[in-house]
C-alpha cells in the first residue's frame, strides 16, 4: 500500500503498533494553571520538552529506523534536520548500533549541534535552511548508500509522531475542544490529525505556523504544495520552505483550521510556559500556546479545553535576551510611542506629569511605569520623544496615543512597528543635514561567524551608506538597518541590486519612526 492510499484507519493501526518507547517516554499532560485562569479556559500542555532529546522528534525517527532491515542498518542512516530530528536520529542510531550522518543548516543553534555530536551523530553543516541541508543529504545518501530518514514526509515517521495524540486522549478522557499543533514540514500534525480523526473526530485539530514561514497554509490555500522563497529564522524548528507531499495530503484532508502567529506573540508564549512550568521552550515549542491565546481573543471563548503540544525545548541561552525583550511587547505589557512636544521651557515637564496622571483604559489597577525615554532637541520649534510605558491590558496603546494627542502632545503608536522595536529604540544620533535622497531598508541574514562581513562586502560601492545599525540579538539571525543615498535616476538599478543581493529586506523609507527621529 502506497502512502497516498493510507487512510486514518490505516494510520491508526500504524500508530498503535509504533515502536517509540525504546527511546521515548510518555510525556506529561498538565494544566497550565496561570494561563488557564487568565484565559478563562483550560489549557493543557503536552510536555514533549521532557523527552530525552527535549523534543518529540525522536518518536518518528526511531519508529522509522526500527522498521529497517539489518542490512539497511548496517549501511547506516542519514538525515537532514534543523536540529531536533537530528538528535532523534542520533539517539536512535546509538540505540540500534548503527552509523548516523546528520546534515544540518549552518543556522542551527549551537546547542543542537553539540547535542547531536554528544549522541554520536556525524554532523555536516550546509546551507541556510532545512531545504538546503535536505538537498545535500539526498546527494550524500546516493553517494554513501545509506538509508535516508526523513524528518516528516514518511508514513513511519508520521505514525511515530501520532503516538503523542494517542497519549493525549488516554491521559485526558474528558471534553477536549481542540488540539493546537505547530507545523514545520507537517509530520507532527499529520500524525496527530490521523489519530484524532480516527478516534475522536469531534475534536478540532488546529495547525499553527509563523507568519513568515507559512508553507503549509499557502499550500492548502493554493491546493498544491508551494515553495517559499525565504523563511523566517526565529522559529528555526519550523523554518521549512516546502512541506512534505504526504504530510500535505493528510493535513489538507484532516486539519480543521490554520493560524499564524508572530515573533512577539511567540516570545510572550515562551514566558507564559515558563511561568506555569519553570521550563523554557524553544520558539517552535511555544507556537501552539501563542495560537491558543490568539484563538481565545478572537472567538471570546470561555470554559473550553485546549491542548497545546510543547514540541521542543532546545533553546540557545543567548537568545533569551531577545525573547525577554520582546515578550512584554508581545503580551502588550509595553507600549511604544513617538511624541512631539513644543520646544519651550516646561514642556518636557508637562509631558512627564501627563504620563504620571495617565488613566487606565482597560480597568487595570497595575501601576504604569516608564520603560524607555529618549529625548533629543530637534529644532527651535519642537522635539521628538521616544517613550515606552507599561500597560495593564491589551489594546491600550492606541487609546494612550489618542490621549496624548488630545492633551496637546501629538503622538504616534509604535507598539507594533518593527523598525521602532528592533532599531530606533537602540540607536544614537538623529537627523542629518547631509543625508540627501536617503532610502532606509531592514535586512535579515543568518547569524554565523563572518556573516556581517559578508553582508558588508556584498554592498555595491555605487551608493553611499548614510546610516547603519546592527545589534547582536543573541539569536541565530542578524538584523541590520541601513540608509543608502540613492539618486532617483538610480531607482531601477537599486531595486535590481537589492533583489540580487539574496537577503530578505523591507523598505522603511516611509516609516513614521524613521521620519520623526532620523530623517533630515
Question: Keyphrases for this structure?
Answer:
alpha/beta, 6-stranded mixed β-sheet, 20 helices, 520 residues, 4-stranded parallel β-sheet, single chain
Would you write up a description of this structure?
The chain is an alpha/beta fold and 520 residues long. The protein is 41% helix and 20% strand. The chain has 20 helices and 18 strands. Strands 1-2-10-7-8-9 form a six-stranded mixed β-sheet, with helices on both faces. Strands 5-4-3-6 form a four-stranded parallel β-sheet, with helices on both faces. α5 packs parallel to α6. The longest helix is centred in the N-terminal third of the chain and has 17 residues.
- Number of helical regions: 20
* Poorly predicted tracts of residues: none
Strand order of the largest sheet: 1-2-10-7-8-9
User: Care to count the β-strands?
Assistant: 18
Calculate Rg over CA atoms.
25 Å
What share of the residues does DSSP label as strand, in percent?
15-25%
Shape: globular
Helix content: 40-55%
Cα-to-Cα separation, first versus last residue: 68 Å
